[in-house]
Amino acid sequence: MIAENNDIDKQVDDDVFNCLNPKSPKSFFLFAGAGSGKTRTLVNVLTSFKERYGIDYKLRNRKIAIITYTNAAADEINHRLSYDSICAVSTIHSFCWELIKNYTADIKKWVEIDTKLSIVDLEDKLSRARDANNKTAISNRKKLESKKKRLIVLPLINKFVYNPNGDNYTKASLNHSEVISITCFFLTSKDLFKQILINKFPIILIDESQDTKKDLIESLFGLQSEFKEIFSLGLFGDTMQRIYSDGKEKLGEELPEDWLKPVKQINHRSKSRIIELNNKIRKDIDSQQQLARVEKSGGMIRLFIVARTSDKLTVEDEIKSKMSELTTDKNWNDDKSVKTLTLEHHMAAVRMGFNTFFNPIYEVDKLKQGLLDGTLSSVNFFTKIILPLYNAHKTGNKFQIANIVKRNSPLFDRKYINEEVDKKEILNQAKINVDNLLKLWEAEKQPTLLELLLQVNESKLFFIPSDLKLSIERTKSVGDEEEQEDDDEILSAWDQALLSNFNEILRYNDYISESSNFGTHQGVKGLEFERVMVVIDDDESRGFMFSYDKLFGLKDLTKGDNENISEGKETGIDRTARLFYVGCSRAKESLAVVAYTDSAQQLKTNMLKLEWFNEDEIEIII
């Protein structure tokens, strides 16, 4: 697993750079496995491109589009490229919106057709519903009503709006999937749109291409095929790290013959034993194998098999102590120095203690993404206003408290202040309102979110988002409990979440800001940590997309699994193996896999057959 030297991938950078020659562009797919330094290659290639072709590109007002998966990745690449104007770095949704946002009339036509098709589909479902009052029928009626309203207001919209990083609730708003779908439609049907695109962006590079939406990738393939003499499409990725179902399957296997397919061989991140495990996990899925850097031999992996009835938090602490002894690394005993990866966010929420707040909101599809990326306005009311106010109060920073209030309170909004208003009275009232709010934390009390909300609502100290306003109104309701099943799922979720204590907001904020020692297999793709503990538990994860019990041979395959295998289609086992690979490949020095099961000895037997772990690397904890 050790490379002969650390420069064996040097030629890859040169090969990719040659593909970007404006006079003879070539498209490519760069295989870059875990820790292979694909961002380094991307930056090196673009830096060389700027030196060779930058001036000409600027004179012709052309740019290279670099599409990344997250805002954080976009910021990192932009920084490393010194924010050069010929490099347009953005997430896929932001890129698509910039392409289509000025085509209002065309967007209107698309929305009208799509909405009418949705109405027909919903009416058909309602006509066939067995029970007109079950949750599905009620939900479909609400959707139908919303679609019909959208058709009515559509002619009145002068310009569409879209915020890729926040809420999209206005009548003129487009949602995330609509922006991608409209872009795909334009790319396949509008010749002028295609020409404008390739004139502005003769080169499009896509990072994490295996997780870019399948429809968009295929639309760009069509564009490349049509304009291959003047347009280069470059894909960076690793099909083993495809963790979202809407990515294109077998992306690296079904490429045009004239594409270049360079491969990076070295994993610069991990020590050789961890790389050996990663190679074995992917052995039956593809033929790609990696090598460690010359100086990175060794490393430690351990599989701990634990009964599902165990006290999980206690056992996981014990395992960290064991890993500290085995590795002679005392940092395994420091929670902040160990990254614990779970399959689902709600598993991390339980371990960190913010599940009362988090889980109800996470269950609502419309709120899930905003909850995870910190852009949900109702959540930001607590994290961006109340939390900073609380922190300033704890440190006795009255100047900071005053700034927060002035910045966020309607009491200081110019719209509500005129010449006759007594400015001193405004300040006095604001101080009273703030003091009353801060009293809720007196004597080390932890108020509930609802108590905080009611206090702010009474004082009118801050604007309250609409969802939370409705939740306040619902606290005054005296209706029958049975009626709640008809309630809007967003409001029902907030009813539950607001019962949590404020300290859950502190823990949630730590989690989403990545300052905690917890994460998910999916959420840490691209990141790396010295010490990693991967927690596996199908029962706790409550998921249906993944099954470690099937992957490890503890549960029989279903009829559907076998049919998918025989037809060459993806199965839950494939998805789980990829997810396991992503989790394990985050580790640089040492890795502990904690597998909860009802069949400890059978799991050990099966794992030895797989030959992923040696016998002395497996321990059963009863």
Describe this structure in words.
The chain contains 26 helices and 14 strands. The longest helix has 24 residues, at 104-127. The strands form three sheets. It has a six-stranded parallel beta sheet with strand order 3-2-4-5-1-6, with helices on both faces. It starts with 9 loop residues before the first helix and ends with a strand. The chain has 622 residues and is α/β, with parallel strands linked by helices.
Topology:
Elements: H1 10-19, E1 28-32, H2 38-59, E2 64-68, H3 71-80, E3 87-91, H4 92-100, H5 104-127, H6 135-153, H7 176-189, H8 191-200, E4 203-206, H9 214-226, E5 232-237, E6 263-264, E7 266-267, H10 272-282, E8 291-292, E9 300-307, H11 312-327, E10 339-342, H12 345-352, H13 355-362, H14 365-373, H15 377-394, H16 398-408, H17 423-438, H18 449-459, H19 466-475, H20 489-497, H21 503-512, E11 518-520, E12 529-536, H22 538-541, H23 548-551, H24 559-566, H25 572-584, E13 587-597, H26 600-610, E14 618-621
Parallel strand pairs: 1-5, 1-6, 2-3, 2-4, 4-5, 7-8, 9-13, 9-14, 10-11, 10-12, 12-13
Helix pairs in contact: 1-2, 4-7, 5-6, 7-9, 10-25, 12-13, 13-20, 15-16, 19-20
